[in-house]
Amino acid sequence: MNFQQSFTEIQSLLTALNHDSDRFVNALRQQHVFHLSFSQISTLEFCQHRYYLQYILNQEPDPLPDYFTKGKLLHQLIAHGYQAQMSGNVPSLEVLEEELFTSELACESVHLTNALQLYYRHRWQVERVLAVEQPFVISLADDLPPLVGVIDLVLQDGDAIILVDHKTGCNFYPYDELQVAIYARYIQSIYPGYDCQLFYDHYRWVNHLERIRKPAFQRTLVELHKDQWQTDLQRITSAAGIIQQIHVGSSPTHSGACFRCPYQHICEFSYRRAN
Ligand code: SF4
Questions:
Q1: 250: CA distance to ligand 1 center in Å?
Q2: For residue 89, how far is the Cα from the chain centroid?
């Protein structure tokens, strides 16, 4: 495969779509331009068959887990808050709550209302919001497919560029350094000379903010170790090799933890179906 050509095609797509992340993700899916993403790599590592269902057959889990919709909606609302901030307005919590209640995505609203309050309390107030939901493509090596991603939030504070990724869930899970390592490489390529800082903002779903014993919000600074990049690159290279094989017809293995898999109700290899 000609990866340089794929990279150029994806760059042109980004320009044509004016860097709109939703349209970019949809267009990439439809146009079959070969690429990698952190989500693809982590899905493949979880279970190759899940990769096959999700990225080759383009199947959605059925039923769609509530946490998918909740996470998506919170990302949208937080993005709208920071977009307003980027235009010089302080977004009001009431406006975001109104947006939540009128959303077409139906899901548990108590968790979301609480998460919105946490966002409002802990939102970043630094010099500038540079980008919200920023799609990107980067070429890491000539023999690797281009890597794409969408960075939730890019901020500037003096000489520092701050990247923020929003995480949601019932708990605070350990993060995967590979994701931010990729984001950092992209940001360092477009803002050379700046200090790059990376954070995860975790939102934990809770029913009662006033009754919780452990925090429902956690901001984690991610320390990237220089020596780690070679290991990260090996991980990406290994996943890229398997993904290419699956795309040309190799049978994916199915070694994942089915009880944690959103495809467990429709997958023919799920332990639920086997038993
Ligand atoms: S249900 Fe199990 S075998 Fe099927 S895709 Fe998920 S993890 Fe893989």
A1: 17
A2: 26
Span from the CA of 255 to the centroid of ligand 1 (angstroms): 7
CATH number, residue 99 = 3.90.320
Give φ, ψ of 50 to 5 degrees.
-65, -40
Is the Cβ atom of 48 under 6 angstroms away from ligand 1? no
Q: Is the pTM of this model over 0.85?
A: yes
Q: Which two tokens stand for residue 114?
A: 């609480």
Taking a C-beta distance cutoff of 8 angstroms, is the pair 252, 207 a contact?
Answer: no
Instruction: State how far the Cα of 267 lies from the Cα of 275, in Å rounded to an integer.
Output: 13
Structurally, the chain folds into a number of domains equal to 1
By residue range, what is the domain housing residue 237?
3-274
C-alpha to C-alpha distance for 233 and 212, rounded to whole angstroms: 40
What confidence tens digit (pLDDT) does each residue in 14-64 have?
Answer: 999 999 999 999 999 888 889 999 999 999 999 999 999 999 999 999 888
Q: Which atom of ligand 1 is nearest to the CA of 257?
A: 7
Q: Which helix (H) or strand (E) holds 160?
A: strand 160-169
